[in-house]
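Minutes, project huddle
Topic: does the predicted pose make sense with NAP bound?
PN asked that the exact inputs be recorded in the minutes so nobody has to dig through chat later. Recorded below.
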Amino acid sequence: MDIKNRSVVLIGATGGIGSALAKELDTQGARLTLVGRNEATLDALMATLSSPALKVVCDLSSDAGRRACTTRLAAQAPIDMVINAAGVSQFGWLSDSDEGDTAQMLAVNLELPIEMTRLLLPALDQSHGRIVNIGSTFGAIGYPGYSAYCASKFGLRGFSEALNRELSDTGLRVLYIAPRATRTCINSSQVERMNEALGNKVDSPELVARQICSAIARDARMVHLGNPEKILVRLNAVFSSVLGAALRRQLPTIKKFAMENN
Ligand SMILES: NC(=O)c1ccc[n+]([C@@H]2O[C@H](COP(=O)([O-])OP(=O)(O)OC[C@H]3O[C@@H](n4cnc5c(N)ncnc54)[C@H](OP(=O)(O)O)[C@@H]3O)[C@@H](O)[C@H]2O)c1
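Predicted holo structure (tokens), as shared on screen:
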């Protein structure tokens, strides 16, 4: 889809990837509505954009909050694109987490995009509307220390694939775009140091934003960003034991960083 002049609702606009994406979409001529919880951060972001954007300040963690938000967004129908970029992550061994950690990751990374998509489907331009879900490499590769996060992103990938097939006799499409590690606040210093120790590549949010826009322009349905990650995703799908053995060798290093707070 050509981004120029399209109306784009960006959920999670205040995040590292979200704000870089807002700037890239603005550069490419999109008409933006930025959705976030923090009004001051949204205002600061809007001040950096070249075109005026709309903002919707709301808490999407409750059903009531989501309904109030989508009622306001529906006033701008037809919407060309909704991007689900909100997310949370917590690195650590499952045995050290509690039910609150799991519930939050499933709620923000999985329930939120599913519910926002469901509520916004009628407001999308039915002839060519696009839903863009921001996934993760960890939505296709199970990684130690990220079991609940992986569950949420595997779920988001499955949701995106199934809904895209469900809508295949309509003009609507679902895109799933999966960044690899990206330098944002979602990653703790433990994770940053672990990535360095393991030689994992980490992208800038600006590069990821450009790659997301490029995938949208190509109308790519399921994209994993970065090399070797996109190859590792394919390898894991066919020969998961090979990747499992490689991760087993890295386990002592991963465990060392995961246990740091214990
Ligand atoms: N950074 C990476 O390494 C990486 C890699 C692959 C995929 N991703 C995915 O990329 C997306 C963006 O992540 P990021 O790196 O930009 O993280 P980030 O900088 O921490 O931003 C997270 C965004 O999610 C929003 N959010 C968190 N909890 C929320 C809630 N309960 N209700 C509404 N919004 C909430 C935050 O809003 P507030 O500003 O109000 O907190 C913020 O806008 C996520 O889906 C993440 O899983 C990130």
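Observations noted during the meeting:
- The pocket of NAP is lined by residues 12, 14-18, 36-38, 41, 60-61, 85-89, 108, 134, 136, 179, 181-182, 184-187 (CB under 6 Å).
- The mean pLDDT is 97.
No decisions taken; revisit at the next huddle.
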